[in-house]
Amino acid sequence: SAVISQKPSRDICQRGTSLTIQCQVDSQVTMMFWYRQQPGQSLTLIATANQGSEATYESGFVIDKFPISRPNLTFSTLTVSNLSPEDSSIYLCSAFAGTSAYEQYFGPGTRLTVT
Amino acid sequence: DQQVKQNSPSLSVQEGRISILNCDYTNSMFDYFLWYKKYPAEGPTFLISISSIKDKNEDGRFTVFLNKSAKHLSLHIVPSQPGDSAVYFCAGSGGGADGLTFGKGTHLIIQP
Q1: From residue A114, how far is each of A63, A76, B43, B52, B68 by CA, in Å?
Q2: Which A residues in the span 51-90 are in contact with B, Cβ-Cβ below 8 Å?
Q3: Which of B29, B8, B9 is nearest to B92 (CA)?
């Protein structure tokens, strides 16, 4: 399995600002994923990030609000832009890293609170 | 439209007994199902998975059963231990490059 780390672990941001979350994997992976977990809700896929190509966004998520970078095979960033209180969530990154192509391993998450 | 449903928000089980967590799905395109365990302030931890062409997969104390005709799967934990107290998420995958579709989770509480 892979070890996935995220920075920051938590942050409190003001409305209208942006937060960039970093995700680092300890091995090279083709695909990385970004999820959001709103309070009391399930994990929802935001986008899939392949190295060397544009991220693919799920319905309801747009690049202007959630720009993603994937500069190499071990690193990705997610920016949450123009923050509003509704963006207060836990943001998690993941990657395929198990014995099968379906097993995703997750980072510890970034808890964002927007005031 | 919730494609993966976990209808029990919480479940309390006595230590040593069997814990059974249930999950229903509506998307027939899922060809792989996974269970994750999550402690507070941590990311989900992969537990066990099952391909849609199988009806059972076992790994130590954890067994996942899949009833494809009923679009239902269950996770059995036996015997239950105090460290099993966590939120358990069921997830489906359409395969390949797809991300995962998660249920809302079941909070399992193991009573001493």
Answers
A1: 20, 22, 21, 41, 42
A2: 58
A3: B29
The answer to whether residues A21 and A5 touch, using CB atoms and an 8 Å cutoff, is: no
Which residues in A lie closer than 8 A to residue B89 (C-beta atoms)?
42-43
Give SS3 for A76: strand
Q: How many residues does chain B have?
A: 112
Q: How does pLDDT run across A9-45, given as a tens digit for each residue?
A: 999 999 999 999 999 999 998 889 999 999 888 999 9
Residue pLDDT, tens place only, A83-100: 999 999 999 999 987 666
Q: Minimal Cα–Cα distance from B81 to chain A, Å?
A: 23
**pLDDT at B23 exceeding the cut of 70:** yes
Pairing verdict, β A4-7 and A19-25: antiparallel
pLDDT tens digits along B71-87: 999 999 999 999 999 99
Copy the structure tokens of residue B91: 């997830």
First to last CA, chain A: 37
Encoding tokens for residue B68? 């494809």
Q: Compute the Cα dihedral for B35, B86, B83, B45 and give only its sign.
A: positive
Distance separating alpha carbons of residues B91 and B28, to the nearest angstrom:
13
* Interchain CB distance below 8 Å, B43 and A109: yes
